[in-house]
Amino acid sequence: MSTLKNKVQLMGNVGNAPETKTLESGKKVANFSLATNEFYKNSDGEKVQNTQWHNIVAWGKIAEIVAEYVGKGKEIAIAGKLTSRSYETGAGEKRYLTEVVADEILLLGAKDNGNAE
After folding, report:
1. What's the whole-number mean pLDDT along residues 8-17?
2. C-alpha angle 94-99-32 in degrees, rounded to nearest 5
3. Which residues in 13-35 are b (16+ Cβ under 10 Å) and which e?
4. How far is CA 103 from the centre of its chain?
5. Does 114 reside within a domain?
6. pLDDT value at residue 5
C-alpha cells in the first residue's frame, strides 16, 4: 500500500515544447505542460469538455527521452508524484507552484519524432 502514497497518473497532450536544461552537475531537467480532458453532459444534455493543465518536471533519463521524442501536441502518459513549492519573484512577490515530478513516461499516438508544432 505504500506505493499508493502520492502517486499521480496522467494521460494527455503536451501543451508546449518542453524546455530542457543541463545543470552544472550534468543532470538534465525538462519542464512542460500537459493538458488532460474530461467530457461530461451538463444539465441540458450538452457534451462539455473540461481541460485541466498540469506542470510536469522530468529529471535524468526521462528528461533525455522528453527532449528527444516529445513535442507540442504529442500524446503521452506519465506517472509520478505531486510536489508543491514556492519562490519569490524579482519584485518580491511570493508565488506557489504545484508540479508533477515524472518517474515514468509512455509515448502514445502517432510514431513521429515528437516535433508536431
Report:
1. 96
2. 105
3. bbbebbebeeeeeeebbbbbebe
4. 11
5. no
6. 87
